[in-house]
């Protein structure tokens, strides 16, 4: 299972989200994820990609990268990484740390969990 997690500014356009996702280099995904207050921004992308959108609480999730501003506001170092990890579930790991869209309005990260037979 591979999940793309996203963080973004309020009102970030779908083009910024697509750009951030493209910068991860991942094409095969199982789902998208973000925090509940960013559902509006991510819904159009999830529909366009025909993928489910998971809304995740991210406080307390340890991430490979860390923004002091995001840590203070949301209790985690990266919304994109934490949302991806949360949506993947136990045993998930980040395989692409957060990347930022060219315009700076969106971030994306990829988490993966190996399926057990």
From TrEMBL:
<dbReference type="GO" id="GO:0032259">
    <property type="term" value="P:methylation"/>
</dbReference>
<protein>
    <submittedName>
        <fullName>Precorrin methylase</fullName>
    </submittedName>
</protein>
<dbReference type="GO" id="GO:0008168">
    <property type="term" value="F:methyltransferase activity"/>
</dbReference>
<keyword id="KW-0808">Transferase</keyword>
<feature type="domain" description="CobE/GbiG C-terminal">
    <location>
        <begin position="3"/>
        <end position="111"/>
    </location>
</feature>
<dbReference type="Pfam" id="PF01890">
    <property type="entry name" value="CbiG_C"/>
</dbReference>
<dbReference type="InterPro" id="IPR036518">
    <property type="entry name" value="CobE/GbiG_C_sf"/>
</dbReference>
<dbReference type="GO" id="GO:0009236">
    <property type="term" value="P:cobalamin biosynthetic process"/>
</dbReference>
<keyword id="KW-0489">Methyltransferase</keyword>
<dbReference type="InterPro" id="IPR002750">
    <property type="entry name" value="CobE/GbiG_C"/>
</dbReference>
